[in-house]
Amino acid sequence: MYESVPIRRGLMLAYSTTRVAPDDSARHWDHLASLPVASLSARTIEHALVSAATLDDLNARWSHFETNAESKLTRQGQLSTLQTFYAQHLVRLGARDAAAKFVARYPAHAYVAWMFEPGELGNDSEDEEIEASTRRNREIVRDLHANGLDFQRVLFVMSPNSSFYRNR
To answer: How do residues 62-71 score in pLDDT, each as one tens digit?
Structure first.
């Protein structure tokens, strides 16, 4: 029952984002965590981080992926997509300072720079494309907040895996 990764990933995400069935979300996470990390898509890893309800849970999940997902990480010295997901969820769970410290070690990345004020990280990009994307992301986030979305919903919309992000 529910053996396919996409079904388990979807149920884990649905249970966690609706905040109604944390035990069911954890059960699906336990199954996914038992699989080889290399067999999991970036979307599955993102959903596992999204479904972490506490900072300890997020850090445990990140530790699981970080030590087992070398093939999923970008070239050395660059912030990977998976690392941006981790930083975003640090902020979601109230660890903004930890997220800033984590991402400040890398060159600016538009997927996370929108969460911080210009100059706050000390790694602002001189690349006009990254800066333009970051400014656009900040404008979108302001509009989403103005329309009543909380930070968790904003992260969902701003994910590169969301249909909203791909269609804007």
So the answer is: 998 886 655 4
Q: At what angle do helices 81-92 and 151-158 cross, to 10 degrees?
A: 170
Cα separation, 65 vs 61, whole angstroms:
6
Tokens of 35: 């699989």
Nearest to 43 by CA among 4, 6, 15, 96: 6
- Joined together, the tokens standing for residue 87 give 């930083």
Q: List C-alpha distances in Å: 18 to 8, 50, 118, 141, 155.
A: 15, 12, 33, 21, 15
Sorted by sequence, the CB contacts under 8 Å of residue 38 that are 6+ apart come out as 68, 69, 71, 72
pLDDT for 82 equals 85
For the chain, give every domain's residue range.
Answer: 5-72, 81-166
Amino acid found at 126: E
CA distance 121 to 107: 10
Q: What pTM value is reported for the model?
A: 0.80
CA neighbours within 13 Å on the CB side: how many for 72? 23
